[in-house]
Amino acid sequence: MPLILVRVDCRLLHGQILEAWVPFTQAECVVVANDEVAQDSLQKAIMQLAVPPSIELAVMTVQEAADTLKDRAWTDKRVICLLANCQDTLSFFRAGPRFDKLNLGNLDCTSGKKQVTSSVSLDETDLKCLKEISDQGVHIEIRTVPQHPPRIIKDLFRFCRLS
Hints:
Blueprint: E1 3-9, H1 15-25, E2 29-33, H2 35-38, H3 41-50, E3 56-60, H4 62-70, E4 79-83, H5 86-95, E5 101-106, E6 114-115, E7 121-122, H6 124-135, E8 139-142, E9 151-152, H7 154-157
Helix pairs in contact: 4-5, 5-6
């Protein structure tokens, strides 16, 4: 399977991805799955400028990314898929490609969200999305960079009330 990292990070493509995760995973392709960015030619151009020429970049809607990866595109490449939030990640998961591990990198502390680590804030909707993915056998961890020890999300389910 070409998906070597599926990561939820509201910043999508940024320095930690390019300087830490791409080398660590030896990724050859980065897929940004985000409906808004897929429609924004300026943001796509800026992302393309940031990516080294040796790395392929694909910016698609969440559904397009799921369909493309489900159809086994890039079978000859090591692929990182970036999603901006838990709701998009659940849609991506339901729509197609299977993966056994999900990385939470950075989710901003916005109104109604509770900070669970220094880089990740979640609300009840996020937890429900993550629980559904976890219940399908996906190992979910919080880890900003590969050198940090992962925090397993199942530990949080015990302490957070889901209605």
